[in-house]
Amino acid sequence: MRRAIFRIAAVMLLACGALSAQEAPAATVTSKYESVSASIAELWKAKKYRQATDILLAFYNTGEFLDLPSDQRMNVAYNLACGHSLLGLRAKAVSFLQQALAAGYRDYYHVMEDTDLDPIRRDPEFLALLAKLKSVGDYEQILRDHAGYAAQPGLDLPEFTYQGPTESELREFRRTYRLDEAAGSGDEVSRIINLMRWVHKTIRHDGNSSNPDPRNALHILDVCSGGKRGVNCRMLATVLAEAYLAMGFKSRHITCLPQYADDPDCHVIDIVYAPSLGKWLYMDPSFEAYWRNERGEILSIAEVRESIIAGRKIVLNKEANWNGEATDPAWYLQYMSKNLYRFSSPAASEFGYESKPNALRICLEPAGTAWKPDTWAATHTTDAERFWRLPAREN
User: Fold this and answer.
1) Can you give the pLDDT at residue 16?
2) pLDDT at 373
3) Do the Cβ atoms of 80 and 120 come closer than 8 Å?
4) N or C: lower Cβ tally within 10 Å for the chain?
5) Do 389 and 252 meet the contact criterion of CB atoms below 8 Å apart?
């Protein structure tokens, strides 16, 4: 069974907020799904697999099941595969696993680790499905297979721009929320990390929340004050990027995207330029997370991706967490491996950029990627050097 599926789905689904989303099911169907999910989770803990499978199968056989979005139908089919596997019903287990894959299930790593599927691991049909799943769900291998970029010197690619800290709304943000105190008086890197931690601790993450309007740091912080509500990763990254700009750091948020257009789950984080290091740094306010190499050096997004491809060890900071719940480094690595295939970034990083109509975004994709037009006004490129270009040094 996907033991963490219900929590993880709630955490990350629709996290990006700007991608096209599936139409929400009726509230009654969603409520029924959540009720069934809670019931079988308790039964699974008690090892009452027959009872749990019967309840889930009864729900599967109703018309309500067909009204669920594909990700929830996928979860039901996967958990039915697990239930029938534990009950020794191999043919049914394989059939439901095949249905899960047909609905878009791609979590190869979980299938490899899920002991519920051990009874069918030697089944030839299961092995054939596993090979198929590996081709679409082994995200580290997919990155290796699509590692290359291609320079495009002839492409008219806009330059990235960064608003200065003297802009009135950035000054107001800095003053109102006492960002200097949040950053502290340490060195450059410690101030960068402290600002990320301040955003993480000030606003809770809620992947299923609607985006406030207007979408700028001052308004987002206002509507979230006192823990009244949370926001998704895009809004957290927006607040952090604008906090960095207010403090004089060049920054932009980066939408980290999977390979597949039908996968609604992406993740939005930030890059911030550290002049003393001469490089971008990866900062994730949703998970209070960043990566270091074995020498202890904080990495950029590009360096994290390159390390995964090369099989080099990278270390997640020990404080990484989601709303106070410690983050498993292995899970986070797998999750980000999925979402480091393509990238999107606003061309102009400035206060309130998320609310600007038709704001230009630049998308970086591996060479040879075929991608359908998205909902954003976007320029697509395979030129990684220009996408990750460092800000111009100021005199």
Assistant:
1) 59
2) 55
3) no
4) C
5) no
Q: What is the pLDDT of residue 263?
A: 83
The secondary structure of 254-270 as a DSSP string is EEEE-S-TT----EEEE
Question: For residue 178, is it left (φ>0), alpha (ψ between -120 and 50) or beta?
Answer: left
Q: How many CB atoms lie within 10 A of CB 375?
A: 8
Q: Which CATH number fits domain 5-137: 1.20.58, 1.25.40, 1.20.120, 2.60.40?
A: 1.25.40
Report which secondary-structure segment, H or E, holds 219: helix 217-224
Entry pTM: 0.88
pLDDT the model gives residue 372:
59
User: Cα–Cα–Cα angle for 269, 111, 117, nearest 5°?
Assistant: 155
Q: Is 184 left (phi over 0), alpha (psi -120 to 50) or beta?
A: left
Domain layout of the chain by residue ranges: 5-137, 145-387
pLDDT at 8: 39
Give the integer Cα–Cα distance in Å for 201 and 178: 15
Please, which residues have CB within 8 angstroms of residue 299's CB and are 6 or more apart in sequence? 281, 282, 290, 291, 292, 293, 307, 314
**252 CB-near residues (< 8 Å, 6+ apart):** 160, 162, 241, 270, 271, 345, 346, 349
Asked if residue 315 lies in contact with residue 307, where contact means CB atoms within 8 angstroms, the answer is no
| Residues whose CB falls within 8 Å of the CB of residue 284, separated by 6 or more in sequence, listed in order | 196, 267, 269, 270, 290, 320
Nearest to 2 by CA among 67, 56, 66: 56
From the first residue on, what is the mean pLDDT of each consecutive set of 10 residues in the chain (395 residues)? 43 45 53 90 95 95 87 93 97 97 92 96 97 95 95 94 98 98 98 98 93 96 91 97 98 95 89 98 98 98 98 98 97 96 96 91 89 66 96 69
